[in-house]
Amino acid sequence: MLDFIGEKKRTHYTENLNKTNIGEKVILMGWVHRRRDLGGLIFIDLRDVSGLIQIVFKPENREIHLKASKLRHEYVIAVKGQVVARAEENINKSMITGKIEIEAEELLLLNDSEPLPVQINENILAEETLRLKYRYLDLRREKLKKIILLRHHVIFAMREFLTNKGFFEIETPILMKSTPEGARDYLVPSRVHKGKFFALPQSPQIYKQLLMISGFDKYFQIARCFRDEDLRADRQPEFTQLDLEMSFVTQNQIFLIIEEMFKYVFQKTIDLEIDIPFPRLKYKEAMERFGIDKPDMRFGMELVDVSDVVKKSDFTLFSSVLEKGGSIRCLVAEGCAAYSRKQVDNLSDIAKHLGGKGLLFCKVEGKSLNSGISKFLKENEQKEILKKTGAENGDLILFAADSNKMVFKILAEIRNFFGRELQLYDQNEFNFVWITDFPLFEYNDNEQRWETAHHMFTLPKAEHIKYFENEKDYGKIEGELYDLVCNGVELSSGSIRCHRLDIQKKIFDVLNFSEEEVELKFGFFMKALKYGAPPHGGIAPGIDRIIMLMSKADSIRDVIAFPKTLQAVDMMSESPSEVAQEQLNELGINIIRNSVEKIEN
User: Fold this and answer.
1) Pairwise CA distance, residues 35 & 54, whole Å
2) CATH number at residue 82
3) What residues have CB less than 8 Å from 70, skipping those under 6 apart?
4) Is it the case that residue 181 has pLDDT exceeding 70?
5) Which of 117, 241, 433, 484 is placed for a possible disulfide with 492 were both Cys, Cβ 3.0 to 4.6 Å?
6) Nearest residue to 52 via CA among 149, 145, 135
7) How far apart are alpha carbons 481 and 490 in whole angstroms?
8) What is the overall mean pLDDT for the chain?
9) d(CA 35, CA 101)
């Protein structure tokens, strides 16, 4: 096929060439990224996976000059030529190969291309749904290509680091038993066993614990996980995590290995030194200071509780909230007193969108409060608020008055809004923090029952086991739980696992699982706990989110080669899609065509 090459193959990738190669004959292959015909000379920018290089076709070589004149955007070509230096005035500083070019001697068209439905140009991007439909073309863009290659290097570095630390990479099943893990399972019908189903794993949680019981001591896996839940900018129905588990381990030892791994990966892949150890913050303190368990620590703007200041206020809204057990908290937006009423109302709309009643405000003028709710506050209350918040002239104070849960939710979102709006942080900074001491259980008011805050296989703190005796104390139980957060993004969740059968039964009792339910859903795992289960624990950093942060991608879709939309649709393959009736018959499945209508009615 490549008749001018003979037995030889491509000799170089474009960006492997530099001035040391001047005078060499090379064979390059790739796509026509750009073509310029100057009447005599024809210039082609050849693109391959490594980058770009300029090819020159001179009119003296009439045969290949004629071929080059017929080349168009995204044609696939092979070129043989000599590496030459560019004249000083023609050096292209925007290209890594800008000091050299290839004088073409032979040219072969490997394939042509129709006009592209989406342009490979960062400056004129098509609408995202169209780009996702032609994802294989969108991936030719330099930005996406670099992200996908970064992903490869990060995963390779993780494997390298953990292997050198004595971990074993072990695969766990993709087809498994459906077990409740907090989100909906993706179900896979069995053809052989009609009416029965496998589930795709939400995580390898049970299997990695079984590996510890098997005695493998240090396990890791680049694990594919699946959750049928509503999507958002940092969530996909299928995602990838670094799954990691160790036996005979403490929380501190897990922190150490993860910190060392992140330091290694960042230095090796993006040449960035990060400081370790990472700071630690207890869950309760994180909520009190930032209103959220994944705080962006790159800037301050912390929440201030003023409930005690206004507890005797004449302002009925405050008093009624406090009587119901809620709180009054605020934050200070420095220099934002000039905000218009419309701008403040827009902030209030954010609170309402989150389910709250809105936001209250006042502005600092001189050494007193003005506008908003200032007229409802006594002079001593105003002075105390100024003292407690540290607010100064020109600042805007925003208040939320509601249940603690809602107040935290609202002010955390407002804080993040101002972080972006006022550019309060360095975009190039990576600020890691461990969040620890989470509650093991939380009460679901809507369903009137207790649920696990993270997952049900977590060891409670030893000193809190006594609280299992009284339902009123369930909320006091803290688990050996921890999250790793960076720049306001939860990167990892982990825990020391419950290796004791008696305590695991207590956890199931709190969740109101009957013995029959436990046996049906977790019987095989409960049986395994009887046979010398060692103390063990682990963590699972989300690779998609890590790459999103490292590459400063706009969304998680940019770091996945073939992602789904927010509606969980693959635009390129047009899936999910209907299947042939014959396939359904084999599986014993009958589709009720009007089921959606029934649900809506």
Assistant:
1) 10
2) 2.40.50.140
3) none
4) no
5) 484
6) 145
7) 14
8) 93
9) 14
Strands (E), 499-587: 536-539
Please give the tally of structural domains in the chain.
Answer: 4
Q: pLDDT for 457-495, tens place per residue?
A: 999 999 999 999 999 999 999 999 999 999 999 999 999
The beta strands (E) that lie in 64-181 are given as 76-85, 100-111, 168-169
Q: Exposed e or buried b for every residue in 106-134, given b needs 16+ CB within 10 A?
A: bbbeeeeeeeeebbbeeeeebeeeebbbb
Residue tagged 């699982």 (tokens): 513
For residue 325, give the DSSP letter: T
Does residue 456 form part of some domain? yes
Domain hosting 49: range is: 14-111
Residue 290, H or E segment:
helix 283-290
Instruction: Give the CATH number of the domain where residue 389 resides.
Output: 3.30.1360.30
Distances (CA, A) of 146 to 152, 409, 432: 10, 36, 24
Considering 111, 141, 158, which residue would you say is the last residue of a domain? 111
In 3-state terms, what secondary structure has residue 201? coil
| Position 35 in a domain | yes
Regarding whether 140 and 224 lie in a shared domain, the answer is yes
Residue closest to 482 by CA, chosen among 490, 472, 474 = 490
Which tens digits make up the pLDDT trace of 224-269? Answer: 999 998 877 778 999 999 999 999 999 999 999 999 999 999 999 9
The amino acid present at 320, given as its one-letter code, is S
Q: Which helix (H) or strand (E) holds 409?
A: helix 404-421
Task: Say if 288 falls within a structural domain.
Answer: no
Domain of residue 573, CATH code: 3.30.930.10
Residue range 526-576, pLDDT digits in tens: 999 999 999 999 999 999 999 999 999 989 999 999 999 989 999 999 999
On whether both 186 and 205 belong to a single domain, the answer is yes
Whether 254 and 138 map to the same domain: the answer is yes
The side-by-side arrangement of strands in the sheet containing 238-247 is 168-169, 218-226, 238-247, 536-539, 489-496, 481-486, 432-436, 280-282
Lowest mean pLDDT among 217-221, 535-539, 597-601: 597-601
Triad 318, 321, 326: Cα angle to 5°: 120
For residues 237 and 571, give the distance between their C-alpha atoms in angstroms, rounded to a whole number.
Answer: 14
* pLDDT tier at 50, thresholds 50, 70, 90: very high
* Distance in angstroms (rounded) separating the CA atoms of residues 201 and 69: 54
446 pLDDT band, cuts 50/70/90, is confident
**Cβ–Cβ < 8 Å for 399, 359:** yes
Q: Which of 29, 102, 103, 91 is nearest to 60 (CA)?
A: 103
Phi, psi of 294, rounded to the nearest 5 degrees: -135, 65
Through-space distance between the first and last CA atoms of the chain, rounded to whole angstroms = 63
**What does residue 345 show for φ and ψ, rounded to 5 degrees?**
-65, -35
Query: Which residues are CB-neighbours of 357 under 8 A, at least 6 positions away?
Result: 351, 401, 402
Strand, coil or helix: 321:
helix
Query: 192 and 238: one domain?
Result: yes
Ramachandran assignment for 39, one of left (phi > 0), alpha (psi -120 to 50 degrees), beta (any other): left
